[in-house]
Write a structure and sequence with these properties.
The chain is α/β, with parallel strands linked by helices. It folds into two domains: about 110 residues, no CATH class; about 220 residues, no CATH class. Helix content is about 40%, strand content about 15%. It has an eight-stranded mixed beta sheet, with helices on both faces. It has a three-stranded mixed beta sheet with strand order 3-2-4, with no helix packed on it. Helix 1 runs antiparallel to helix 2. Bound molecules: S-adenosylmethionine (SAM). The site of S-adenosylmethionine has 22 residues, from loops.
């Protein structure tokens, strides 16, 4: 995407992604919102002040999340009739008419809400990361010291407590209420084995506490309103997480890792991971992070290895990349869906 994409172009670009990722409702609303912007309608009034926002801040999704938040709060009865997340049934053009009226009528509150950054916590991404975790365990054969940056509410830090299935295989807690199905889409799957997590910590500049109603509403608002499976997974994961002691620490990635990566953890594999976070980190911080990661890599030994696992946008789908220091050069080990695992495993299988 070019640096200077206009707001209607951003909306249409996001609409295409929503279409591909199974949200016909958001695809339609965003295309009509782009037209409305071009025609000087309420969408222009709401979004025009954000013309120079960084492209990674996902303005179009911020608008969708802002409106969804009001609908989930029970304040948009007309629009809620077309949002499955609120008990409604999708009807594309009537939904657009209600959406447009909402923007016009709720302008003051939406102007505030649209400032909020996109904050999801998508447990489907655990299915994309699973193969990486298993491969790290298979190669290092040590307990994990798990560190997640951009951890949001910490739902993905509990990846080892969920159940994963695919044709011909399964992994994880058979009693978990959270089951991700069809994790691997091809015949290839990573080497399966036990993983021990000795320590788990996460950071986020704006951590969400899954036991608080306000934080739960934020997470729900950024799920697309016609994707009920995602919503159900989120509800269950928030329920499980709210009963655990684990809470994400308030910090940006660079400052947090500076202190944590200084010393390798003895007889443990330090596993740094992240998903759909890189674009939200400033250019300077990304550069500093890469320096920290490579310094940690150069200090790592076979007794104290360091792994860097991440799922971030690729050309046509998300890419899962892994480096293990020492001995496993950085490479793509899988491609995956952004919300559902749909993981095509490319790494070693035994
Ligand atoms: C799109 S969400 C993804 C959350 C989670 N990783 C997931 O996959 O569900 C992006 C997250 O990155 C966080 N973030 C933004 N800037 C950050 C930074 N400098 N360091 C760490 N996290 C950051 C946001 O607060 C937000 O929780």
């Amino acid at each position: 995407m070019s640096e200077h994409r206009s707001i209607p172009e951003l909306c249409r670009f996001q609409a295409d992604w929503c279409e591909r990722l199974g949200s016909p409702l958001y695809a339609h609303l965003l295309r009509r919102a782009a037209d409305d912007f071009d025609q000087g309608g309420p969408v222009r009034e709401l979004l025009a002040p954000h013309e120079h926002d960084p492209k990674g801040s996902a303005l179009a999704l911020r608008m969708m999340g802002a409106v969804h938040r009001l609908a989930l709060q029970g304040e948009l009865l007309e629009l809620a009739r077309f949002y499955p997340s609120c008990g409604g049934t999708v009807a594309l053009e009537p939904a657009w008419n209600a959406f447009r009226r909402t923007i016009a009528e709720q302008m003051p509150v939406l102007r505030e809400l649209v400032l909020r950054p996109v904050q999801t916590n998508e447990i489907g991404r655990c299915g994309a990361l699973l193969g990486g975790f298993l491969l790290i365990a298979h190669r290092t054969r040590l307990p994990f010291r798990l560190l997640e940056i951009g951890a949001s509410a910490g739902l993905n830090l509990q990846w080892d407590q969920y159940r994963y299935t695919w044709p011909g295989g399964a992994w994880g807690n058979p009693h978990s209420p959270i089951v991700l199905n069809d994790v691997f889409t091809s015949d290839a799957a990573p080497p399966l084995g036990d993983v021990t997590v000795a320590e788990r910590r996460g950071c986020d500049p704006d951590p969400l506490d899954p036991s608080l109603p306000e934080c739960r509403l934020t997470l729900r608002s950024f799920v697309w309103a016609d994707q009920l499976e995602r919503m159900r997974n989120l509800e269950q994961a928030m329920e499980v997480a709210s009963r655990s002691q684990l809470r994400v620490e308030r910090a940006g990635a660079t400052e947090w890792l500076k202190s944590l990566l200084v010393e390798p953890a003895n007889r443990m594999t330090t596993v740094l991971f992240h998903s759909i976070v890189w674009q939200y980190i400033s250019r300077q911080d990304r550069k500093d992070l890469l320096d920290l990661i490579h310094e940690a890599g150069s200090r790592a030994t076979a007794d104290s290895p360091f792994a860097w696992l991440r799922m971030e946008p690729g050309e046509k789908s998300a890419e899962v990349k892994l480096a293990i220091f020492p001995g496993f050069e950085d490479r793509i080990i899988a491609t995956a869906g952004y919300h559902r695992p749909n993981t095509r495993w490319l790494g070693e299988t035994e």
